[in-house]
Here is the input.
Amino acid sequence: MRIPVTVLPHGEGLPLPSFQTRGSSGVDLVAAVTEPMVIAPGKVALVPTGLKLGLPEGFEFQVRPRSGLALRHGIAVLNSPGTIDADYRGEIQVIMANLGEEPFPVNRGDRIAQMVLARVEKFIWNVTDDLTITERGEGGFGHTGV
Here is the structure.
C-alpha cells in the first residue's frame, strides 16, 4: 500500500518514517523541531513531525510510545495509542509526557514515537437484552488474579 505524504518546510531534510527492522510493526516518527526543546519532569509537550498524511478510508495510524524511551527515561505518549483518522489532513504531532525524574531533551531528527497502520471496520449497533454467555462473563479489572 502506498500512503501519500506531504513534507512540511520544517520537516525537510528529515527521513520519512521507516521500519527499523524487517519484522517491525511500526515506523519511527522523528522530531521536526527547529530548535532543541526540553520536556521537564512532569510536563507535557506537543512535538511536530513535519508530516501530513493522506490515509485511505478504512485505515488508521496508531501513534505509540517507543519502549526504550519509556524504560530508560520515563517518556510516554499520552492518549496512547493516539489515533490518526483517515480523514485527518493536519500535521502529525506527538503528545509526549516526561514521567521521569530528569529533563528530557528533544532534538531535531530524534526518534520520538512509533506509528502502526491498522485496518478499521465500520459497524452498526444491534440493541438487545440477549448477549451470548462467555466463560469470562462480567469479570474485568484484574479478575484473573495476579
Q: What stands out?
A: The longest strand covers residues 44-53. The two ends are 42 Å apart (CA to CA).
